[in-house]
Design a protein that fits this description.
The complex is a heterodimer of chains A (177) and B (105). Chain A is mostly helical and 177 residues long. Helix content of chain A is 76%, strand content 0%. The longest helix of chain A is centred in the middle third of the chain and has 38 residues. Chain B has one domain. Chain B is built from five helices and no strands. Classes of the chains: A mainly alpha (177), B mainly alpha (105). Chains A and B meet through α2, α4, α5 and α6 of A and α1, α3 and α4 of B.
Chain lengths: 177, 105
């Protein structure tokens, strides 16, 4: 079994960047929740912040890569219009979805939402990254800012989760091949 | 440490999110706006919408960041406004919400 070029890029977009984001999000959340002076030694605090910064870079970086690859590489293949008279829609995912009333909503609601909402994630994740870098070890003392970063990351995660699930379902219904 | 730069980053993020929602709605409401935002033929109007979002977000961050560089600001209203902007942005990217404004299904 071989992946086509289009399938490979779709997998990179969703599996490598999308799931990578979720993986590092989990790490960032755990590091953030334990970033309290009473829970860590001074050395542990330093190490925790370094790991948090790495996770923050990964979250922001992967979310940017996911939307850039998704929009500028995979999306043109998805939305390509078939030439007039074409009946085989195998290579035209959007047209394939829209050709049946049972799948049309996956484009009209699912993909339309996903293509826009996905672009909210990198902006929000970058805000979180900035706050992590600006405060660094001070996040341990600044409870309000620590919780702000926590909430900002959770918003990015919830949106990316919705976008990811929609992407997986739409790929199952009409893969970009 | 002054919290002005952090407040600027948070509010600018909210502005960026809201802008994408507003522009997405506008393209649904007016075909002419949708056509005007086709900055790349193969990507369609998503190219214009997302570039506008990123540019507005970065400009807002720059302007707010410079304005609040050395200031201590009341973070609570900034967080509330940013949260409202984020909710607006998310809602306005949701297709069923577009139909409320356009009247189309």
């Amino acid at each position: 079994m071989m992946f086509t070029l289009r399938e490979t890029w779709t997998a990179v977009h969703g599996m490598a960047f999308g799931f990578g984001f979720i993986l590092f999000f989990t790490a960032a959340l755990a590091l953030l929740l334990t970033l309290q002076p009473q829970l860590l030694t001074a050395q542990g605090l330093k190490r925790n912040v370094v790991l948090l910064k790495i996770s923050g870079i990964a979250i922001a970086g992967l979310s940017w890569l996911a939307v850039i690859v998704g929009t500028w590489i995979v999306y043109p293949w998805y939305r390509a219009a078939p030439p007039a008279g074409t009946s085989d829609l195998t290579h035209f995912a959007r047209s394939r979805l829209l050709s049946s009333p049972t799948t049309a909503e996956w484009h009209n609601l699912g993909f339309e939402w996903k293509e826009h909402a996905g672009w909210l994630v990198p902006v929000i994740a970058t805000v979180a990254l900035y706050l992590i870098y600006r405060y660094g070890e001070n996040l341990a003392k600044e409870k309000k800012m620590r919780w702000t970063v926590f909430v900002v990351l959770c918003i990015a995660f919830v949106i990316s989760g919705i976008v990811g699930v929609l992407g997986a379902i739409i790929t199952k219904e009409a893969a970009v091949v | 440490m002054k919290n002005g730069p952090s407040a600027a980053a948070i509010l600018a993020g909210g502005i960026g999110v809201a802008v994408l929602g507003i522009v997405a709605l506008l393209t649904e409401m007016a075909a002419s706006i949708n056509s005007a935002l086709v900055w790349n033929k193969s990507v369609g109007s998503l190219s214009g919408k997302t570039i506008i979002e990123v540019v507005v977000w970065l400009v807002a961050w720059l302007v707010l960041g410079l304005s609040w560089k050395d200031r201590e600001v009341n973070l609570r209203p900034i967080l509330i406004v940013s949260a409202i902007l984020a909710v607006v942005g998310v809602l306005l990217t949701f297709p069923p919400v577009w139909s409320i404004f356009t009247g189309h299904d």
